[in-house]
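Worked example 3 (structure in, sequence out).
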């Protein structure tokens, strides 16, 4: 069995992401997931330019987040992205954990569908170039 394809980034909560209680506003988590997803896709060799060259754009169609503990101003945290599925979609799971304690703070996943960049129609297959890049990254 091949190991999961993952990437992780370490970040620190900036002042502009918190509310008056010093807690991260829930919408900013999506930005953190995007940073980790970008690291994952770069590991695969499919950054934005390569994804666009495949003829598809990849909108997020589903996002589910479970907030276990809040992130707070100045807190160092790690976001791990794991590719769970790439058959006709990209399903990526995320875990946010505290750098100091390792405590898991948030679980989430996103689903993205390939959409033909010219016609705007959903494609029901993952472009061959992406499948090949994922297979190379797993090897």
């Amino acid at each position: 069995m091949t190991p999961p394809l993952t990437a992780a980034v370490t970040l620190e909560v900036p002042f502009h992401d918190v509310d008056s209680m010093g807690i991260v506003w829930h919408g900013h988590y999506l930005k953190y997931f995007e940073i980790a997803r970008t690291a994952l896709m770069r590991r695969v060799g499919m950054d934005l330019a390569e994804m666009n060259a495949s003829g598809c754009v990849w909108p997020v169609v589903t996002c589910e987040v479970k907030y276990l503990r809040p992130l707070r101003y100045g807190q160092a945290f790690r976001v791990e992205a794991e590719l769970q599925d790439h058959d006709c979609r990209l399903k990526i799971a995320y875990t946010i954990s505290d750098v100091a304690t390792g405590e898991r703070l948030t679980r989430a996943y996103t689903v993205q569908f390939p959409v033909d960049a010219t016609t705007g129609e959903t494609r029901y297959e993952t472009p061959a170039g992406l499948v090949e890049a994922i297979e190379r990254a797993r090897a």
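Notes: The radius of gyration is 16 Å. The chain is about 25% helix and 35% strand.
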